[in-house]
Amino acid sequence: MTEQLRTDQRAAVPFRCDHCHYPIPGEAERADDGDGHFCSTACKEAAEDDSTMPEPDAYKRVVTGIEPLDSLLPNGIPADAFVLLSGDEGTRRSELLTELVWRALERGEPAVVVSYANPPTATLERFFQNGWNVLPALEDDRLTVIDCFTHRLEDRDRFLETQTEWTNFVGEAAADALVEVEDPSDLAAVASRLQDVLDDREMSETGIVTIDSLDELDSLLREESVHNFVKDVRATVCKGRFVPIVAGATTAGTDPYPEAEYVFDGIVDLRLTDEMTPNARLKQLGVRKLIGAQFLPQWVTYEYEPVRGLFAFGPSTDAREVYENAGPVPMQERPQR
């Protein structure tokens, strides 16, 4: 009886295709030499041509490494997703974007930051402020910054002349990793430069792209142009390469792009609330939508501290202890010049 039950259980589990690795819904096709099971003729012929696909979860899912976000995403973020971080000012949205890049670098993956809100040296300084040394990643082409800020300055030379010694050092060390866009309002050119960078870095089925501020794009261009840009890079980068894009936008009291949420595969909301603790505005994170992924429909309370990054804590935690324990980055952990 026990042996019969085991046989029935095995029969209930479908074979997985030896090429695409997905379950075979019907009768399997066998290889001509009898070695291998395939879901379709296409997979059988591809295998005969010595084509091998990696396991889907190896490149189609991304576990970010950020505690409060991962706690809501049991299986990670789909790698073909364009995700919007929609948050109030003061919710550490910029730190979350920075940490997404850092965690990818820690995994040995490449990353591209599209910077509209800050000059590239300021973008890189966010990593150093967190105690994360990105100089090696800049040197070995794992981190690239697409500069959509500098050419918008009225007096670019004056800006460069007033930089500090440290800023000049970072700029020189990162020179080969900085890609300037002369006309950041030309979104077709921005999308083209992004594709060039991804080609140069061989970014396909690996890595992440972040865009620091869709608000800056809105201030430069009509909303329709921004939506078209999002749809363009979503198709060519996320869907075409399985490289996720995460972009930030402030709610400023209202939901950004309320009539165009369909252009985003996922929306993560960041908010400030004083409901849990009197006289304290706590930060909370929730996933509003994420196509193709399971997520928990709840809010997670979180805070940030240097080196550690964003971390979650529960309602029974004394909020005062959380803030008292968060301190500055020790000087010995800062990269030395």
How does this structure look, described?
It comes from Halopiger xanaduensis (strain DSM 18323 / JCM 14033 / SH-6). Residues 17-51 form the TRASH domain. This is TRASH domain-containing protein. One of its GO terms (molecular function) is ATP binding. Keywords: ATP-binding, Nucleotide-binding. By secondary structure, this protein is an alpha/beta fold. The protein has one domain: Rossmann fold (3-Layer(aba) Sandwich), CATH 3.40.50. The chain has 13 helices and 14 strands. The strands form 3 sheets. A 10-stranded mixed beta sheet has the order 8-7-6-9-10-5-11-12-13-14, with helices on both faces. Strands 1-2 form a two-stranded antiparallel ribbon. α10 (187-200) runs parallel beside α12 (223-241). The radius of gyration is 23 Å and the shape is globular. The N and C termini lie far apart (72 Å).
Mean pLDDT: 84
Distance between the termini: 72 Å
In the CATH hierarchy, the architecture is 3-Layer(aba) Sandwich
> Strand order, biggest sheet?
8-7-6-9-10-5-11-12-13-14
What is the ordering of alpha helices and beta strands? HEEHHEHEEHEHHEHHEHEHHEEEEEH
What number of structural domains do the residues give?
1
Helix content: 25-40%
The DSSP helix count reads: 13
The structure class reads alpha/beta
In terms of DSSP E residues, the strand content is: 15-25%
Integer-rounded radius of gyration: 23 Å
CATH superfamily: P-loop containing nucleotide triphosphate hydrolases
Instruction: Determine and state the CATH class.
Output: Alpha Beta
Low-pLDDT stretches are 1-11, 328-337
* Morphology call: globular
Query: What's the main sheet like?
Result: 10 strands, mixed
What is the CATH fold-level name? Rossmann fold
Domain TRASH: 17-51
GO molecular function: ATP binding
Pfam families: ATPase
Keywords: ATP-binding, Nucleotide-binding
